[in-house]
TrEMBL record:
Compositionally biased region (Low complexity): 306-324
Keyword Transcription: yes
Protein name: Transcriptional regulator, TetR family
PROSITE patterns: HTH_CROC1 (PS50943), HTH_TETR_2 (PS50977)
Length: 337
């Protein structure tokens, strides 16, 4: 052994080409699924491109596998077409919102999946104004349909709120999959996970408003009537799994990962409510989370060694040369004599 380190690509010159080919195949597979989601939604490509903030040329390249979709773009496609990001990435085992039925593909953009459009309009209005202040007529106007059309898909306003809650859960789940898919380090993953679930952006504040109203309703009603507790359990399990991975890799402190996840999610909930209601600003919110992570989750980094010094090295040496002192009057008189 000569002590020199070689990279995997130096040991295997074909490895880099293999990785490039794998990324290309992955991009092509994702492009095919995005194309299928667009087809099933009944939306035109130009509308999808506008929804995710890119031009049609870039969308066409991504659909053909010549360009990779970014996390934000995948999230935008999933939101516009009604599928999940996990489905777009090719993992159907944990899909929570499968693509719409191909047997009922609409003929025009305006008629594309009206039930989903109604639910999204309800989500926006409930999030901004609250359940009690929103009328069926308001949701009908916002979604561009008649009130009887609303009742065709939803029995009452409570059903509409449940659909809005499902939409909130889907948004949060899609955001996690899109942004956490390529983060391997558990510490970075946990930080990003908490940031994604924080009420810091406009969409996230809308989700938190829906969740806060849901908590209030569940405290007054039978919790078995809602699927939200199961959705919350999935979120808590995601945090717990991340903590367990961090413990295995030595990044997090030892302890009961379930209890640590419960404490962390409870802290996030409490701080999030303070931000949402204006009691706490976002900077303080972020600082409180960081402090808790450092104190209770992250493994403390070893302090840098402080160099020891001897007394001789810290005490200045006495000068070896004598310093001439000014002559006194007596000395001056002696010299003159």
């Amino acid at each position: 052994m000569n002590g020199a380190q070689t990279s995997d690509t130096e040991d295997n010159p074909h490895r880099e080409d293999d990785q490039s080919s794998e990324h290309s195949r992955s991009s092509e597979a994702t492009g095919l699924r995005v194309r299928e989601a667009i087809r099933r939604s009944g939306l035109k490509q130009r509308k999808i491109a506008a929804a995710i903030g890119i031009d049609e040329t870039k969308l066409s390249k991504a659909l053909s596998g010549r360009r990779r979709f970014t996390a934000d773009e995948l999230l935008g496609v999933a939101t516009a077409t009604g599928v999940t990001v996990r489905w777009l990435l090719g993992d159907e085992s944990q899909v929570s919102a499968p693509p719409p039925n191909t047997a009922t593909v609409p003929d025009s953009d305006e008629d594309a999946n009206p039930k989903r459009s109604i639910a999204e309009a309800a989500w926006t209005l409930f999030g901004r104004h609250g359940f009690d202040a929103v009328r069926i007529a308001d949701i009908a106007a916002a979604s561009g349909v008649s009130a009887p059309s609303i009742h065709y898909y939803f029995a009452n306003k409570s059903d509409l709120f449940d659909a809005a809650l499902d939409y909130s859960v889907k948004l949060a789940f899609d955001r996690q999959i899109a942004w956490l898919d390529e983060i391997a380090d558990p510490a970075q993953r946990l930080e990003r996970l908490l940031k994604l679930q924080s009420p810091l952006g406009r969409t996230e504040r809308g989700e938190w408003s829906i969740w806060l109203q849901t908590w209030a309703r569940l405290s007054l009603e039978d919790s078995t009537l809602s699927n939200y507790p199961l959705s919350y359990e999935r979120w808590s399990k995601t945090v717990q799994t991340t903590i367990e991975e961090g413990q295995r890799t030595g990044r997090f402190r030892s302890g009961d990962p379930r209890a640590m996840a419960d404490e962390l999610t409870s802290l996030l909930d409490g701080l999030g409510i303070k931000v949402l209601t204006g009691v706490m600003d976002t900077d303080t919110f972020a600082q409180r989370l960081r402090t808790y992570l450092d104190r209770s989750i992250r493994h403390p980094s070893p302090a840098p060694a402080t160099p020891t010094t001897t007394a001789s090295s810290t005490t200045p040496e006495r000068p070896t040369e004598t310093t001439s002192m000014p002559a006194t009057n007596t000395d001056q008189s002696k010299e003159s004599s």
